[in-house]
Each structure stands twice: as C-alpha cells, then as structure tokens.
C-alpha cells in the first residue's frame, strides 16, 4: 500500500511516496514556490509532483502538513501567512477528490511533532512538545502518545507566549513574545538596529554580512557569534533566554518528558543552546523534570509526520 | 455503595460520605488541623472523622485530595509545604489497609479540577484548566475529559510560570512568578510594604485593618479596594494582570475551552476580575478562544473531585 505525504511550506513544496511500514521514501520531490505563488499555483505544483512520484499508481492514504492554521476535523486550511488565497480552502476534500483516497491535513508544527514522536527524537516518549524556531516560532504537543491540538486546533503557540512584558513590540501587538526575541528575522532586525546605532560595534558581524546589513540572517548571526562577535553573541543569548523562559513555563504548566527543538535557528551553537538549557532549568520548578533535545528528522519532520497521519488513517479503516 | 471522600488541606481536614451516584453528601465533617499538626495527627484526626461518618459501614472506594505534591500512580504523598512529617507517606496504602477498600490519592488542584469537571463549572467541557488562587496559586488540567497530570505528576504549576522577569523575588528563587504577584499572602506583604514606605497613602486600607498592618489579608485588600483605596486597587489590579498573563500564555500553549478560577482571592470584585479577563484576552492570540469563569463548587471542589476519583475506581473494577 502506498502512502502519499505532502508538505506545503511557506516557500517550498515537498512530496514523498512511502510504502506503508517502510522507513525510507520510495520517491521524493521538492521545489520552491514560484515568486508570486498563490494557493492555486501551489496546489497545481503539488499535484504535478505527486502524480510524477506516484507514476500511475494510486495512494491508499494521504497525509498533509500545511504551514499555517488548519481546522483538523474538516481538513480546511484557515489561511497562510506567507501565500495568498488559502483562506478556507477545503484541502482535504480537494485531495480526496483528486486522488480518490482518504486524506488527513494538519498544521506543520503538529505534524512535525507527530513525525518526531513516531520516527525521530520522540520515539517511546508519551509526552513531548516539538518547537520549531525559524521564520516564526511554533509548537506542537504529543500528550498520552497522541497529538493534542487544543479545543480550537490552536494549541502549541509557544511563540506568542509573553516572556518579557516590557520587551520589544511583536507584530502580534504584544511585547516580549518568544517569537519576537527568538525568531530568525527578528534577530536579524535587532542586529541591524544595533549596528546602525553604534558604528564601532559588531565588526565581525559586519564583515560576515559583507558590510550589507540587509543581508543579515539568523545563520550569519550564528557564524559571527562563533567567531566571537559580541553583538551576535548577545542577540543569540537573548533568543536562547526567551526560548528558555517559554520552555520553562511550558514545563511547569504541562510537565512533558521532552522538548524537541527544530528549525533553522536551532542549528546555532553553544551560545544559544547552553542558554536555552540553563534558563529553562532555572524557570522550571526543581521537581519538574524534562529534557531539551534537537529534532532528529530535520526538515523532513513534517513529511514523516504526514506519513504517520496517513498510516493512522489506514490502521483506523482496517480496525 | 458508599464512597468515602477525604480532603487533607493545609490547615483544615474535611471528610464526606456519599452514596455512589448521589449528588449530595450523606454526611459531612470538617475540622481545623491542631496548631502543631504533623502527618500522624492529621491522619489520626481524619481516621476519627471518617469512622464517625461511616457509622459502622464499610466504604466501597475512597477518594483523597491532598494539599501538596503526590505521586498519583503509587498514591504516595511527596511532602506538604504546610504540615511536617508527610515526606514519602504511602497514604493510599495506609487508607486501603485501614478501610479495606481501594483508594485513589491526588493533589488538591488536580482533584478540584476533576470535581469541577464532573459536577461543577466544567460539566460538558472536554478541556479545562482549574486554577486556585489562595495562599498559593496552583492549577489542574482536564484534557480529553481526563486529568492530565504530566509525566512526573507536576503539571498545572501555573503559579510558578514567570510573567515578569524583572518583577519581585518569589520564594521559589525566581522573579515575577504568578504566585508572587497574585497569592493572598504576597498581596498582603506588598500592601504592608507600601503602607510603610508612604505614610500618606492607603487611608482606607489602614482603617479597614484597624491600623494593624500585620492583620492585612487578601480579603481586607479586596474590602479596601471596593471602598476606593488606591493602594488596594493597584495591588488587586497587579494580581489580576499577573494571573491574566499566566492564563493568556496557557491559552496560547494548550487552547483549553475554559479556565475555572477558585480560591479565596477569586472572591475579589471587578478590579480583579475585569483585569484578569482583559489581560488574558490581550495575551492570547485572537484565534485562541476561551472563557474564564468562577468555580461552581467553591471549597467543596476537592471533596467532589475525590468522590469522582472513587467512582472511577468502582466503575473500573466493574468493567
């Protein structure tokens, strides 16, 4: 039996075909969204990828990761913050009609949490919180070995928990959200501001961005920090602090066994990781035990989570 | 079939006997712990209360609420922050030996959450967070209509989530915990400090505490606030703000349907409640829906939760 796994990211589209029970992709395709993508072009491109991978065969079930809020029960995309036209798109229904197979659609953080739980750093852990720290900061829960989505499907928004009410203003309108302090673009923005204010600081970071602050990314900040740039180290430590407070608070509230961290920013070095670990440990009560580990599946976590959702559909129908 | 429900509070002991399926106590007793109570005296007193209530009959099952951390799986009390000698007491085993009936023991916030879920403000709600704001600030979760205790039984510690990292120091060693800002004794401490610093403020509060600041309690602060005392209003609003941030953060993380607030401090008026509601709504993302309501069972929530635990034991054994 073939499983079709789809990952609609903000800027990229990926698809894979897996034989039920296998732990490797039978075939795999990945492409960038075109510059002026909308929901129709994305669906069109994904359709082509899938048909090519399936090569005339029919999938038994489809699992889908979507980069934005999804109503899991109906499989309807609420919207995308990155691509136009997704408002209230019945993605599950569209795919079921197209491929004549049952489909399951959820948002990427929930799906990645499931992927890590079933095939990655969360195997044999009954409770975990997966956190992706990238363009934004999102999260997904596994409790009692099952996804916990919340009553309205909105659980896991650790990025918009407030850790410093007197901190900088976030796009969401609040001050000191985890996302405002720890996401890649906000770290880059902070670095640019700091370089602008004080012309005698951040020499290493300036060199690494080739004296073009608009080129600064989370990755370059990490490179500069590894090379001893003070501004870059401060910004990474502040990001680690914010994430650490968010994780410590979540540990006190829910007491999961593990926090699994994925996304570009978590590829940073010890300035970031040691701060996250230390601060989370300080914030959590001494009796609250947990581990913080790296994601094992990297960028493939959503696809493997999609595989798990499709397997669940098949196991359910054979019960 | 008779159910025996016990509530070991920090300063009081309560017991009730209920017929399985009934929604009123057949008999009920409540007493204060003696001044120099320890675990032995508390168990002794509770034993007397229970034997009197049972009047020669044998309970079919026992449910127990304990005011401190409990290992639910073994029914062992970890410790009490209020009464000496409870360290690692096998309370479930002691009660099962004494009464020759199965017993279930959990900490008071989890038990009260279950009580409100089964018989109070949480009926028909699949997911809720019960928060008691009193001497301390504790919480208990119901997710998928069942208690969520966390991997080590420590979930629900909303009182020690940090909402203001530059705030005042909490006994736990951190700054700006919800408990540090919203619990009754800390509010009273804050009021005493404010009255001491500025002799020209808080006239209404001074009068209400009969010019003896050591008499100030959360209740008196509320009375003073209702009568227009500025210091009292500020302190209550700060407490409401802290609890609101904690609730908003918890809503973003877990997205439960309801927050149910109990405990002495929540008997405060609109200065407190309106702030809690407004701040929680500001902190939660617009898509995250929830309600904040008063507990329906008041001080009896732990006893009714204990009844629910005992009923679950009976239903389990008849399966």
- Total number of beta strands of chain A: 12
> Any low-confidence stretches of chain A, pLDDT <50, length ≥5?
none
Shape of chain A: globular
The share of residues in helices of chain A is 25-40%
Give a quick account of the main beta sheet of chain A: strands, pairing sense, barrel closure: 5 strands, mixed
Which pair of chains has the greatest number of interface residues, and how are they split between the two chains?
A: A-B, 46 and 46 residues
Question: Count of helices of chain A?
Answer: 10
Could you give the order of the helices and strands of chain A? Answer: EEEHEEEHEHEEEHHHHHEHEH
Structural class of chain A: alpha/beta
What does this structure look like?
Two copies of one chain form a homodimer. By secondary structure, the first copy, chain A, is an alpha/beta fold. In chain A, helix 5 packs antiparallel against helix 8 (230-254) and helix 8 packs parallel to helix 9 (270-283). The mean pLDDT of chain A is 95. Chain A is globular. Chain A has ten helices and twelve strands. Chain A has helices at residues 39-54, 91-99, 108-119, 178-182, 184-197, 203-208, 218-226, 230-254, 270-283, 301-317; strands at 2-8, 12-19, 27-32, 61-66, 70-71, 76-77, 103-107, 128-133, 137-143, 146-148, 258-262, 291-294. In chain A, the strands form three sheets. Chain A has a five-stranded mixed β-sheet with strand order 3-2-1-4-7. The first copy, chain A, has a five-stranded mixed β-sheet with strand order 10-9-8-11-12. Chain A has two domains: 2-114 and 303-317, ATPase, nucleotide binding domain (Nucleotidyltransferase, domain 5), CATH 3.30.420.40; 124-295, Nucleotidyltransferase, domain 5, CATH 3.30.420.40. The longest helix of chain A has 25 residues, at 230-254. In chain A, strand 5 and strand 6 (76-77) form a beta hairpin.
């Amino acid at each position: 039996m073939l499983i079709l796994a789809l990952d609609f990211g903000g800027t990229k589209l990926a698809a894979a075909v897996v034989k039920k029970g296998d732990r490797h992709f039978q075939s795999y395709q990945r492409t960038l969204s075109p510059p002026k993508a909308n929901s129709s072009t994305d669906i069109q491109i994904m359709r082509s990828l899938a048909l090519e991978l399936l090569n005339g065969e029919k999938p038994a079930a489809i699992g889908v990761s979507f980069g934005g809020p999804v109503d899991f029960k109906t499989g309807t995309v609420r919207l995308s913050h990155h691509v136009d036209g997704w408002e209230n798109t019945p993605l599950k229904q569209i795919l079921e009609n197209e491929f004549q197979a049952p489909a399951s659609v959820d948002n990427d953080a929930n799906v990645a949490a499931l992927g890590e739980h079933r095939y990655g750093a969360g195997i044999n852990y009954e409770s975990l919180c997966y956190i992706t720290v990238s363009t934004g900061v999102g999260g997904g829960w596994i409790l009692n070995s099952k996804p916990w989505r919340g009553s309205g499907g909105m659980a896991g928004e650790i990025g918009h928990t407030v850790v410093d009410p007197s901190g900088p203003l976030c796009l969401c309108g609040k001050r000191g959200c985890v996302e405002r302090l720890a996401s890649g673009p906000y770290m880059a923005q902070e670095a640019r501001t700091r370089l602008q204010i004080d012309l005698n600081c951040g020499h290493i970071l300036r060199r690494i961005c080739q004296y073009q602050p608009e080129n600064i990314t989370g990755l370059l900040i990490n490179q500069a920090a590894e090379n001893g740039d003070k501004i870059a180290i401060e910004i990474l430590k502040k990001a680690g602090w914010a994430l650490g407070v968010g994780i410590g608070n979540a540990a006190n509230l829910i007491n999961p066994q593990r926090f699994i961290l994925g996304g570009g920013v978590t590829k940073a070095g010890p300035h970031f990781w040691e701060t996250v670990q230390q601060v989370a440990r300080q914030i959590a009560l001494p009796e609250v035990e947990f581990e913080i580990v790296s994601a094992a599946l990297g960028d493939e976590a959503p696809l493997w989570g999609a595989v798990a959702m499709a397997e669940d559909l098949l196991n359910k129908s054979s019960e």
